Structures are given as C-alpha cells and as structure tokens.
Fold each of these.
Amino acid sequence: MPTSCRIASPLKTVILGLGRAGWRLHLLPMQQHGGFEIIGVVDPEEDRCQEAAQACGAVRYASLDEALKRSDAVLYVVATPSFSHFEEAGKILRAGRHCILEKPMALCLEEAATLVSLAHRNHARLFVHHSLLHQPEFHRLKAVKESRVLGPLFHIRAFWGGYRRRWDWQTLKKNGGGQINNSCSHLFSMLLPLLDSPVVSLWADCRNIKDAGDAEDHVEINLKTESGLTAVLLISSAMVQKGPRWILAGKHGTLSSDGKKSQLTYYHGAGLPIPPVIDGAAPGRRYSCEVLDWQKEETLLSDQPLPPSFHQNVVDVLCHGSEPFITPECAMEVVRLTEWVHRATNQPTHPSIT
C-alpha cells in the first residue's frame, strides 16, 4: 500500500455522517486523541452540524463533492448508511485523499475490490473501521490460538445474542441494514484471524423475527475451512439467552469466553502418548480412558494488553510511516464472507438488486 510521504499532525479531517458512528465512534475519540483537526462535516441534519461547529469549529459542507472541492482536508471519514459507502469512499480515493470507512466497507465483493484498487492506484490509504480488532476480547482469543496451548483448533462456536426490538434505518434492506452486513461483519473480522486456512464451504439461514423493517435480525452460519476446522455462528437480537460468546475447542482443551472474562481448561498433551487400542473385551468392563491433569486459568479480558487504538494507528500510518493494523485486503475478505451468506440465504447482496 502507498504512502511514503508522511503528513504533519494534526490531520485535517472531514466527517461524513454525524449519527451514532460518526459522532461517538469518530468525532469524539478524534477530539480526545489530539492527532486530528476536524475542519468540516457533511450531514443532512442542520442541528447535528451546528453541534459539531460548537464542539470543534467544523464547517458544514452541503455535500461530499463540495468538501472535496473547497477543503484542504487530507482525511475523510465515511460514517453514512451502509448503502452509500462504496460511492462516497470511491470519490474520496479518486481524489487522492485518505479515507476512514465504517464497516461494512461495501455491500459486495466487486465493490470492495474496486475500493482496494482505487486506493492503490491513487496512492491513498483506506482504513476500514473493524473496531473490535482493537479490543481485549479479540486479543485474548488470538493470543490463546497462537500459544497453541489448546493444540490444533478443530471447532469454533460464537453466540452473539440478546433481545431488543428495533425500528431504525438499519432494519431496512434498502439501506444495507440487517445482521449480515452489520453484526456479521464484526464477527467475521474477529473470526478470520483465528482460522488456519480459507473457508471452503458455508451454510446459512436468516430470518426477520421481530424488527420493524424487512432486514434479518436472526442469522445462523455453519462453515468449514480447507483444513477441516468447523465453526457455528449464531447472531441474533431475537433470543433471550445467556451463554458464552466464544468457544474455541482444540485437541488439548477448550476456551470459553463471555466477552468480559475467559476460562481456559487444558492439559499438556504434547508429552502424553496415547496407549495402544484394546480391540476386545474392556478390562474390568470399564471404558479405557484416563484422568487428566487439567490446567485451569480464568482471565479478566480488561487486563489484556492492547495494540494502539484504531485512531492512533491511523495517525501512526499517515504521520510516521507505520504499517496499518487492519489492511483493506483483510476487510475485503470479510465482505467476501458476508456476500457468501447473502447468496446462501437467497438474499440480494445489494439493495439495488431486486
């Protein structure tokens, strides 16, 4: 990816969209960070733009086109509804400006690949905001997998559930709403680094159970990798159920995590040979098995060391020449899987497809 030319901090920034993501996930953290100067905003709601002007002195632009033409911002944040991500990020990258793009980066693989190509061609950086990859929950899972204390993983199970009724724009298919493009994007971004090989088969089911819009609020996914590792993923806002968010099952033990605390149970399997199989009458009419010396660990995830925050990584890349923590190619693989889920459930991958 390009960018040998480093930019002075603070980074002059324009934010598109001042809803939950634009305001809470970008404007406020950027203000607190200090490495950004928010000079402009684009949002159809005048009161939100006035609030931004009072908070950081940002100028309101009527459109992205106007901002690109009139401002000297080097960085643009796209925090608008999902269906508009491709068009807006494309304009920014074609203009040679750097772009922070909310997930999903696009609604189909072809669009995602186009954005990655535009970034390379125009020597611009594309940062996709897969925020959970900067959190303790993910880094505990990744550290346990890489330690191989569980032995080779053979199964992963994730349950992201709860119950709440919604009626906002993300419940509408025409806006790219629903669990597949939204929560599944988060889940896939965390799952992919835990796999040992590419996904080669996938089955999925999705339904709208209780949300006001027509987009899915309940999704079940079963997948298998080239090496044989399997995963079962359940993402639902229609299930009143408590249980582990993650289970990682390996040859020598299992990790269970509720997202705040993890429990690790394992044995030192490398030094324990398996006795020969008894092909005949079982001695004492008992199962031939052993009592293992289980090791147990319980960890609060808030104690886990973290990499730099998402916004710190943006500053490090643009101002100091560091490598991006999340590459656009990794984000593109997330889109490949979400598109696969759409196809597996006979859903259009894009709201323009009827």
Note: Residues 136-303 form a domain with the Dihydrodipicolinate Reductase; domain 2 fold (CATH 3.30.360.10).
Amino acid sequence: MESRKKEQAAIHSSDEDDDSSDNDSGNGLFRLGNSVQRSTKSVPEPKLIDSRPKNLLRQPAVPTRRVKDNRARVAPDLSPLYKQILKWEFFHDDVFPPGLSAANYSKVDRTFSSYAAYKKTFEPLLLLEAWQALKQAKEEAPQPTIKLNLVTRMSADNFVELEITIDGMNDRNRWLESDLVLVSVSKQPLTSKDSPHCLARVHSLKKKFTGANTTEVQLRCDPSPQMMQENMRNGSTLYAAKIMG
C-alpha cells in the first residue's frame, strides 16, 4: 500500500514537472519576443546624410510669380505704344508727333499722386522722343526700296498682319525684327506723299531657300480702311523702305 502511494506521488510529481516545463518554455518564448522587441526599440535609427552641396541647401526657392514679374520687366508689352506710333502720318511736318501739341506737355513733378498722373506726364515725352528719332532717320541716307509680295492679310492683336515674301534680300538691306518700315503702293515710298502708305513693324522673319533666295516676313500695321480694302488684297504688290530699327 505504501509503495502504491509512492508511485502515485511520483506520477503526480512528474506531471507537475511537465506542466512547469511547458510553462517555463512558453514564458521563455514570450520573454524572448519581449526581449527582441526591447532590443529593436533600443537600436538608434541611422541618420540620413544629405549629399547635396551646402550652398544649394541654403538657396531659397524662387517663387514662380517672381520669375514671371522679372520676365515682364525684361520684355514688357509694347503693343499700346506701337498702336500709337503706327497710326502716325509719316510725312507729318512738325516738331510734335501727329495728334499732339505743346498743350499736352507739362512740368515733371517730383512726386505723383497716382499712376494716371504719372502716365499723363511721361507718355507724351516718350512719344516725343520716338517722333524725334523717326524724323532724324528720315533725314539720313535713304534705304533701298524692297518689293513686297502680299500672300495673305489677317487680324492679330488689334493690328492688321500682312504675310509677305521678299525675293533677294541681301545682308546690306536686310530687315530685323521690330524694324519700322514705310509701306506704300508707290515704287518710291519715301517721296510719294500722295500715294496710299502706312507705317509697319516687322513682327517676324523666316528665310526660305526654295530655288530663289526668299524671305517670309510678317508685318503688323494699322492702315486706313481704304488702303486695306483696295491695296492690301491677297496677291497684291507693295513696296517698302526701312525707316529705323
């Protein structure tokens, strides 16, 4: 009887050892996992090193609006100015531009209360300077007359745009963009006051080599309605002389 109790006690002790062993192993796995988590958190994160040059890092970003403003200052829109100049009568003989007189000019103040006051003072002065430059160009050596072959006529930006071709334009009498020319029906545009004529601005040029030396030119002008309807039809022939650049 006593031996049987010893066997039961031994079996019970063995079961407890097994349970204890299982619990220890389970607790050991959890402890291992916890230790791994703790060790992972304890590892410091690597610092990222920026390889860009330091001078680039210190440069502030340029706002897009500032870039547009700078471009507008470098290349302002001169269409309103050209609109007034191209309306001028080339053969007008006066110290003041056509449509202006001494009454349009005033003393330059030191300060201005508004933009309108500034414009009222300086716009006539700007036009006067342009008119004096044009008169001086008229008195210089005359430019050769160039024959214009009108391909088509259209409207662009409140101007009349003429698509023309010029044959045999050499380097001596070559036109450039923004040149001011006198367009006329006469073969002698600089001396034919009574022939239909108008001032024009060279808008663009494109040289083509199609057998002959031909240059495609876009002219922008503001002719009278009569000249536009009667003398600026597709296929017409006109003549022009460069006045100034």
Note: The CA atoms of residues 97 and 131 lie 6 Å apart.
Amino acid sequence: MLSLSPLTVLPCSPLELIDAAEAAEFDAVGLRLVPVLPTDVDVMADAVLRRAIERRLSATTLRVLDIEVIRIGPDTDIAALVPLLQYAGELGARNLAVTSLAGAEYEPVDEPRMVRKLAELGEAAARRGIQPMIEFMVFRGIATLDDAIRVIARAGHQNLGICVDALHLQRSGGTPESISRIPPQLISCVQLCDAPASAPAPQDIPREARYDRLYPGEGALPLRELLAVVPPDIPLSVEVPCAAQSGLSVTERADKAARCTRELIASVHGRRPGSRQGM
C-alpha cells in the first residue's frame, strides 16, 4: 500500500489532499486532524469539515493509513483524545502517529509515567481498531529506533508499533540493517523521502525534516537497501515536505511524489510503476 503523507502537500485543506491523492493513484492518505504547524487546519474543531472528509473519502478508492499526530508525555490526558480516536475509527484509520516531547523537555525520570500513558493510549486506540505507532526523531526524547523499541517493551501493550521514517532513521544513526534485526510485527509503517547523505548542523535538523526533504531518488539515503529489508506487506507512506517545490500545486506535488516513489519501488521489487497496491 502506498499512502500520501500530509506533509508532502501542506499547507492545504484535507479535501485538497484527498483529491490530489486520488488523482495520483495513491492507495491511501494520512490525515492531520489536529494542528501542528501554524498553517494546519484544526479538523477536530470543525464538524462540518469532518463530515465533508467522510463524504469525499467515500467517493474515492482511498483508505486512511494514519492520523497525525499525538505528542505523548507523562501528563498526556488520554481521555481527552477519545473524540479524535473515535473519529479516526469512523474513517477506518489504521494507525495513529505518536511522537514524544522535544528533547529539551524530555526528562528520563518521567519516562515511567510516559510509558504508562502510552499503554493507556494503546488500549484506548485498540477499542477503535487503531494502532498507535511511535515515530522516533533525533530531536525528540524518543530519538532513535532503540528508544522506540525500549518504550514499547516497557509499555507492555501489544497494540503499539513503530513508524520508520527514512530521514529520521539516517539522522539518528540507524541503518537498513537496524531494521532487519527487529521483529517485523513491530513495524507499522515506513515513510519514504530522500536527503543528502550528510546531516545539516544539529540545530537545523528539525527544519530539514519539516521543510527541506527531497523526493525519493533525488538524494543519497539508502532507500533501496531499506526497501529490500522491509517486509512487502508493510505500508509505505511518502513524506516529502520540500519548500523548494512550493511553487507546484498540491496535485503536482502529489503526482511527483507518487511517480518518484513508484520508480524507486520498481527498481527494487519490479512492481509496475503506477499500479495500485492492496491494503
């Protein structure tokens, strides 16, 4: 399954994202329901928009791969997230993206409380058929693949997985071989993009992740090696926020993301570019 991540085409409305994903023949979309960036739409605050999203999705062949994004911490109010989880379940979403607090705010002494919140979230999401997936980032408290594995083990709840972002894997010191060594059932999703082999200065890594990625095949990340070790049934999401491409329309950015990613997949697995993959 190939999914279009919101960051690839933001800023835009969720309806524009859905239309662009359908036009580019993606199999699925990710939806950002609560604001993260100043330009994000607050979907959960707009009942009319939520119904419009349901209607638009029902008129397409698209599924919802994931919902963005929850920041998990020791004081997260899981009960307050129930409306979000309920709506995500109504959309048929498969995963819920979860990150930790920023690195400067993450206190190791608070990790046991955070882990309990994570287990509580896993249980609440399971009731709605959704799996929370930890996305590790070098500038957050859960910074590496090993960190994500550790907190999931400590949470002790089976309804938790990991989102492997190709950029975050590389910038945190991980490799495709790192992925090959973990149980495949831990991987909820793989997010694809490209970037130069060398990381920017540490203070610039968050900006690179949010605004300065490259389309698959345009950089030097070991994407072919990553795809070679990822089980074929793991969903793939294209997350390419690229300020240099902001002059392109939402549809043009989605089409380029799909085209570049299908060419990459074909070079590794021989799948015919342009073909939709099943769920």
Note: The domain at 2-269 is CATH 3.20.20.150 (TIM Barrel).
